Amino acid sequence: MATVAQPQVIDEAYERSLWSPITVWLTTTDHKLIGIMYMFTSFLAFLVAGIFALIMRVQLAQPNLNVVDAETYNQLVSAHGTTMIFFFVTLFLTGMANYIVPIMVGARDMAFPRVNALGFWLVPVSIGLYYSGFFAGGALNAGWTGYPPLTSKHFNPGLGVDFWTLSLIVWAISGIMASVNFLTTILALRAPGMTLLRLPLFVWAQISTSLLLLIVGAPLAGAMILTEIDRQFGTNFFTSAGRPVLYQHLFWFFGHPEVYIMILPGFGMISEIIPVFSRKRIFGYESMVLAIFGIVFLSMGVWAHHMYTVGLNIYVETMFMALTAAIAVPTGIKFFNWMATAWQGAIEFTTPMKFAFGFLATFVIGGITGVYLSAVPVDTQLHQSYYVVAHLHYVLFGGSVFTIFAGIYYWFPKWTGRLLNERLGNWNFWTMLVGFNGTFLIMHTLGLDGMPRRIATYAREDWAGVNFFITVMSFLLAFSVLLFVINVLYSRKHGVIAGNDPWDGNTLEWATTSPPEPYNFERVPEVRSFMPLRDAKLAAAGSPTASDH
Ligand code: HEM
Ligand SMILES: [Cu+2]
Questions:
Q1: Could you tell me which residue, 5 or 492, shows the higher pLDDT?
Q2: From 1.20.120.1080, 3.30.930.10, 1.20.210.10, 3.30.460.10, which CATH number describes the 12-540 domain?
Q3: What pLDDT digit, counting tens, does each position of 139-192 carry?
Q4: What residues pack around ion ligand 2 (CB closer than 5 A)?
Q5: Mean pLDDT for the chain?
Q6: 342 alpha carbon to ligand 2 midpoint, in Å?
Q7: Using DSSP, how many helices (H) and how many strands (E) does the chain show?
Q8: Cα–Cα dist 386/383, whole Å
Q9: Does the Cβ of 190 fall within 6 Å of ligand 1?
């Protein structure tokens, strides 16, 4: 084992922890504490956006209800979408990666710890700006996509739109900072022996996500800045005198890759979790890395599949259709590799593994409905209908949220030193799986029947039964999240003590204490494959180590 010298500088914040915990959190530059703050903040956002969803579902439970009026509904649907996408999923994943990636590559911290802290502290600023709208006469009411002319001064004189553009500009700056930091950390601070092709797949996933956000964060900020200039200075970038469709190009050049920013880290987590609980090595490591970059590359060339109905040239549409369908190829490679990994493995159905399988089962439905929607004639019919709402929740909930829960159950012992309760975890999983599919599977039929999305109410009596069922199921889904919160609160104090390596893991985070010391490792194990800890264990047992790359 190579010994690394004791660190010269221990995070000053830790030293001050003797006298004031609050100061520690406010001043820390430790990637682990920053990771926890990201996760804590974004999970609160998840709860708020979930409550908004429940209010919307109550409103839609029967025809012609008036629980909330149309204007309030529009603000709720916009805040729900914006909060889930920008403030929950993306930032929760940033927090998980903040905690885990430096440890996985054997680093002491992120490359730029102070930039990391600044990136985090921009998050409450961004969320605060958006939510200020609610106290300034009404928040954004144009959907999370904020298309002009709905956001123009003419239609929307209030401050809600301005708070939204400012919020997302700050969000993009914070995300770009985090991306530069992740890329530098992974490229420059790897432990001795950790070549690129020995990076754990979760780290590869973080490289791809960071690259994407680095490229598409600026176009998003650009779209927001131009929207704001139109509003404040009467210019015509996106007005009807200008090019409203230009906004959609800019927004979706960000928006589609954003979907992959929200799912690739989950792919990475599943690629760590399935091998550990199948007791097998990942099937096709190199093809997994290649597939990630296939997705990165393609994801930047498909944005106009959100715009099939704006009147693009048919040949342009055909190209976007082909590229969109092509994404199924690298995604399919990953999917088959996960199944091949689990195939004939000694599978342990721990809660993280259940969520991993739950992800496989639900994400495939979102993937397949996505392939249908990629076809121009199909999308022309289904655009703006509940079919799209069902599809996007299969991808975002069945994909991102299930992987996030798999990752939380997997790494919680590392973060806190205690395991989450398996019994509550089992209930959490099954209520979520049933609640989720109950809410969103049958929703496809409403879309096929022509129910439009983003409507505050509807008159069709024959939609009442299905909508009522969906609303009941959405409460089961909310109950599953409640079980999770109870599990965290309970296990943090009373959970089973985890030790360093409760799952018999493969990667370096399990080689250090739970939670790790501020400097992460006293000594970093020698890295000879993408499963360094497994190698160390095999070597200690006198067995031949996993074959090298
Ligand atoms: C807690 C379970 C959830 C429920 C019950 C739920 C419910 C809803 C409802 C009722 C709508 C409005 C549909 C409409 O009027 O067009 C909606 C829209 C949306 N949801 Fe969810 N949702 C949930 C979780 C999520 C998650 C986890 C995400 C993302 C990670 C998400 C992202 C979105 C987006 C992007 C929209 C579209 C907003 C828009 O049209 O501007 N939702 N959801
Ligand atoms: Cu897309």
A1: 492
A2: 1.20.210.10
A3: 999 999 999 999 999 999 999 999 999 999 999 999 999 999 999 999 999 999
A4: 256
A5: 95
A6: 30
A7: 20, 0
A8: 9
A9: no
Write out the two tokens for 144. Answer: 């999370």
Ligand nearest to the CA of 457: 1
> Residue ranges per domain, the chain?
12-540
Looking at the whole model, is its pTM more than 0.70? yes
Distance 389 CA to ligand 2 centre (A): 13
Distance 393 CA to ligand 1 centre (A): 7
3-state secondary structure at position 139: strand
Distance CA 398, CA 440 (A): 10
Q: Is the CB of 420 under 6 A from ligand 1?
A: no
For the cut 60, the answer to whether the pLDDT of residue 6 exceeds it is: no
- Rounded distance, CA 98 to CA 206, Å? 10
Neighbours of 237 (CB within 10 A): 19
CA–CA distance, 485 with 490 (Å, rounded to integer): 9
CA nearest to 203, candidates 277, 118, 267: 267
Q: Where are the alpha helices (DSSP H) in 144-281?
A: 160-188, 201-233, 244-278
Interatomic CA distance for residues 453 and 80, integer angstroms: 14
Whether 179 and 217 have beta carbons less than 8 Å apart is answered as: yes
Locus of tokens 């024959």: 462
Which tokens hold the place of 127?
A: 């969320």
Which pLDDT value is given to residue 496?
Answer: 97
